[in-house]
Amino acid sequence: MRKKIGGYLRLARPANLPTAAADILAGVCVAGVLVFSNDVQGNESILLYNVFYLILSSVLLYAGGVVLNDVFDHKVDKIERPERPIPSGLISLPAASFFGGLLLVLGVASSYWVGDLSVLVALLLAMSILLYDAIAKKHEFFGPLVMGFCRALNLILGISILGELSLAWLAIVPMIYIYAITLISRGEVHGNNKNHIIWAGVLYSIVIFTVIGVLVIKTDNIIQTIPFILLFGFLVFKPLVLAYKSNSPRNIKKAVIAGVLSLIVLDAALGTGFSDWMHGLMILALLPISMFLSKLTAVT
Predict the structure, then answer these.
(1) How far apart are the first and last CA of the chain?
(2) Which of 39, 52, 114, 246 is most buried, by the most CB atoms less than 10 A from its CB?
(3) Within 10 A of 82 (CB to CB), how many other CB atoms are there?
(4) Neighbouring residues of 194: CB distance < 8 A, sequence distance ≥ 6
(5) pLDDT of the residue at 216
């Protein structure tokens, strides 16, 4: 029984789940809701509950997506990753399919308590996840694009907390960023993806300068945000340069993992820019949790 439970946990990629929560917290800050702020009079408990429901929705949707990703990849994984729960026989294909589908349904259902707009965003996110897992990931261009769109919707899910989508266009930032990570991951098994790494570096730079530009124009918190941006740049570019110099599957995998986990730092930068450094640190606190879990279970 313990092995079965461990298998289901491995399917859900626990190390990645804090990054989904970080998206929501960043979106909440972008929406203008300062969590735990005394400025919000009379509605603190309602807002806190809504933040919780959105985080729960996001985490369940993300978990369902990665579980179903392994379901659709089970034939390939028999060859490339036979140790994973489904190809190893630890979790049956029907059981994994049911588990992933249930997580998606629960993810959409959790958004119901926040409002109709959040439900619509969550439903669109669930559909986009299925599109990626079943079809889009097989295409070199549309795969990264749809994956990035899923992350964009995750940020928008957080922004929807007040029932409107002002500044939802900011979702282009995680969309570009995840597109870059997905490009890098194309060489995770066989290596030899230097062109993709170059493009990823260009996209990372675009993300950084876009965030700086948006915060300079829309807020007055750019000084508070600089340390988060510098940390983000260090965490993503160091393994990327190493993967370019030594273009092995091992180094490429490290660059992918760094990219996924550093999404928390990017969210912390956005959260700081649209609120303050305390909320940025609150988001950043998810990073050590994610890093710890990444030592226990796979990220990619």
Answers:
(1) 25
(2) 114
(3) 11
(4) 244, 247
(5) 94
